[in-house]
Write a structure and sequence with these properties.
The chain is mostly beta strands and 115 residues long. The protein is 0% helix and 48% strand.
């Protein structure tokens, strides 16, 4: 089925940048539509950005122009470049396979934006 492992989270000051990585295992990565979600304390999990197997992308309005999702199929990886970070971006960020038969989620990586 495959597994996902996120990395790259941490503490950053407002206006700073981080790059998250989602590394996948398994043989079907190139067929997967992938997405990044986030969940802040006391809030529901929300979609941040998605990228199809063909490379088409979509973004939440709150991150448009600041975040960029990308993928390298040969490395079985999806990336989320986050620039101009704001305190309201603080959350646990999760990677997800969008078109698997059963949901495949990573364990999450914490992003904290604070001065």
């Amino acid at each position: 089925q495959g597994q996902l492992v996120e990395s790259g989270g941490g503490l950053v000051q407002p206006g700073g940048s981080l790059r998250l990585t989602c590394a996948a295992s398994g043989s079907f990565f190139s067929f997967w539509n992938m997405a990044w979600y986030r969940q802040a304390p006391g809030k529901e999990r929300e979609l941040v950005a998605g990228i199809s197997k063909g490379g088409s992308t979509n973004y939440a309005e709150s991150v448009k122009g600041r975040f960029t999702i990308s993928r390298i199929n040969a490395q079985k990886s999806v990336y989320l470049q986050m620039n101009s970070l704001k305190p309201e971006d603080t959350a646990v960020y999760y990677c997800k396979v969008e078109n698997s038969v059963t949901p495949i989620w990573g364990q999450g990586t914490q992003v904290t934006v604070s001065s």
